[in-house]
Amino acid sequence: MSMSSGELTVEGLRVTYELRMPLYEIVHLEQPEASLLGSFRVFSQGQELQRRQGACAANTDAGVYRCESAYTLPAEVDRLEIECTYAAATVPNHVHVLRAVQGANAEQAVFDYSFKRSEIRFTPPTFTETLAHELGAGFVRVLMGPFQILFLLALVLAGRSRRELVWMALAFLCAEVVTAAVMGRVLWEPSARFVEAAAALTVAYLAVEVLALPEAGYRWMVAAGMGVFHGMYFGGFLQQSEMNAAYVLSGAALGEILLLTIFALAWDRFKAAAAVLRPVQAGAVVLFAVGIVWFVMRVRG
Predict the structure, then answer these.
(1) Which residues contact 12 (CB under 8 A, 6 or more apart)?
(2) Which among 13, 151, 177, 247 is least buried, having the fewest CB atoms inside 10 angstroms?
(3) For 176-231, what is each residue's pLDDT tens digit?
(4) Could you report how far apart the first and last alpha carbons of the chain are, in Å?
């Protein structure tokens, strides 16, 4: 879980931008102000706008690193192009949610390591555009996040039959949706360190159960626990983006069902071809190691 937010405001020929970055995201940067200011670029009609001013300051009480910058437009416009490379400056799984405002018009864009550039149009979007944008935002967050993919791989490995995998997937999705929907409406946001550390332990526990308790029941309850932590990630995303929860979570569910189907089919083929290697046990060992390493890194980091 690595996320920041920003607001870009256009007033006449003046463009201002404010970044809010969690302090823990920049502890490894030698020159955080230069790195972050240089990772956000604004273009108008193909020409880059030169930054007229820019400064950053840490608010240790709030745990936030705040940057402000300003640009001047050569002429009034109804669209801008933004290039954002915070994922390269901080960590590869970083997600930046940008809200852009011009008068009564507002639009949002989401940036990560695979989506570095986006056009901002200051015209009211149609229903179809909003639906496609927000469904896509949820869908992409699943496909591009190692945090999310690890959970889905753990579910596939732990499912001893198609029926059990279906029940585990349903428990995971229900817990995820409920948690995200609740968090998206409240002002509480748990720390990323806590969520990831706890999530890592659930993955490691599931691996232990596969190894030590191969006949144990109620694995759907562990899947639901993983869904809660995954839902916290999407709850934070909804808080930052202010997108429609139903659209975003529907897109996420579609992405998760697609990946689960692909992983399950691939896993069945692999188990049949490499049965002599005891793939379930070997996969559980790898899953346990990843969960423990992830837990230690988050606790110490």
Answers:
(1) 73, 76
(2) 13
(3) 999 988 886 776 667 767 777 888 888 888 888 888 877 777 888 888 988 888 88
(4) 13
Phi, psi of 33 (to 5 degrees): -60, -50
CB of 100 within 8 A of CB of 108? yes
Q: Tell me phi and psi for residue 242, to 5 degrees.
A: 60, 30
Among residues 198, 200, 205, 197, which one has the least CA distance to residue 222? 205
- H or E segment at 251? helix 245-273
What architecture (CATH level 2) is domain 3-124?
A: Sandwich (2.60)
User: Residue 94 pLDDT more than 90?
Assistant: no
| Domain extents in the chain | 3-124, 141-300
Question: Distance (Å, rounded) from C-alpha 228 to C-alpha 199?
Answer: 9
CA dihedral 7, 11, 13, 15 (to 10 degrees): -10
Angstrom distance (rounded) from CA 136 to CA 254:
10
d(CA 269, CA 260): 14
Mean of pLDDT over the chain: 87
- Owner of token pair 């429609």: 244
Tracing tokens 């690890």 back to the chain, one arrives at 150
Residue pair 13/23 in contact (Cβ under 8 Å)? The answer is no
